[in-house]
Amino acid sequence: MDATDRVFVKPRGVIRGGELTAGLLVAIDNQELTYRAVGEAAGVNHQTVWNLAHMRGGVDLAKAKGIAEAVGRHPNELFSHKNGDDLGVI
User: Fold this and answer.
1) 49 φ, ψ to 5°?
2) Among 76, 74, 27, which Cα is nearest to 53's?
3) Which backbone phi and psi does 27 adopt, to 5 degrees?
4) Cβ-count burial of 80 within 10 angstroms (0-12 exposed, 13-18 middle, 19+ buried)?
5) DSSP for 4-70, written as a single string
6) Which of 30-34, 67-71, 81-85 has the lowest mean pLDDT?
7) In what order do the strands lie in the sheet with 79-81?
8) pLDDT for 59 beyond 90
9) How far apart are the first and last CA of the chain?
10) Interatomic CA distance for residues 82 and 71, integer angstroms
């Protein structure tokens, strides 16, 4: 893990059904995954996955990469910097 992996990121919101929701929740729902399965695949607690899927809290970039990989998405699709900026090329 290098210094960039310790950057704090938050869930990226998307519009679904006219409401703001987390892109992570959409990815989990579309693939009919469980929070526990995503957490196990990503090496994080299932409660962390639930929190992020409900736009609560954030994680370091290393964990975000693992979660994104677990749902088959690029981290830029699911997360942004805590100030809302794009993650950029990672």
Assistant:
1) -60, -45
2) 27
3) -65, -40
4) buried
5) GGG-EEEEPEEEETTEEEEHHHHHHHHTT--HHHHHHHHTS-HHHHHHHHTT---EEHHHHHHHHHH
6) 81-85
7) 59-60, 8-11, 79-81
8) yes
9) 13
10) 21
